[in-house]
Description:
Number of helices: 2
Structural class: mainly beta
Helix content: 10-25%
Oligomer: single chain
Shape: elongated
Strand content: 25-35%
Low-confidence stretches: 1-94
Mean pLDDT: 73
Amino acid sequence: MRYVNGMRYSAVAVVVASAALAVAGCQPGGSGTDTGDGGVTPSGAVSSAASSPTPGAPKPGSSASGSSTSSTPSASAPGSSSPAASVPSAPAPGGSAATCSADSLKATARQAAARPAGTGTGAAVVEFTNVSGRTCVLMGHPTVAGAGNGSPEMNVPLIVKPTGAAAQVKVAPGGMAWVKLTFVQVQGEADGYCVSGSAPVVYPTMVVRLPGSGAHQVALDDGQFAECEDTVTVTAVSEVRPS
């Protein structure tokens, strides 16, 4: 009898323990989770239905084609330059020098060594010195006017006959360029005379105007400008001193 009762008590204990486990699994605070399909998933496990993506659906952060999509806006950030924006080009080095301005030149005149025979001025060489700090350019034939020491309105434009081809002459700081003026010569002694029969004219100064470089009033280093017919033959600006 003791053996039978012991077996009976053991069977009852097993039944009670199984029932307790079943009840604990169904409590809200239990360690399992109902999967909805009749099974219980231990706490902390992830349901395969929740973690598996739907077949064919794109993953978060990717396009339907499988390539990754960027969250950066397509517009450029404020202050950034567009790749297509044009950049102004800087001036190329070694470009042409500017034309000499009037105030960048100092002009002087002297009687030329090579001049027509006679007793008048005959010819004069006008020298232009670059007194600026930059290289500049002179070019072309000058115009000439006879002038006194008074008002410029009293200047007398001379008939200019250009000779020789004009070429650009670069004048460095402290450098020089020249033009030569050849007049219709005065003949004879004293006041002289003109071959044409007209009276000679004497000007204390001449106004020599260079293309783009202003007018320059010059006096001879010795004497005055005595000439006939108010006509002058002029050379183009030259980098070689004429005789």
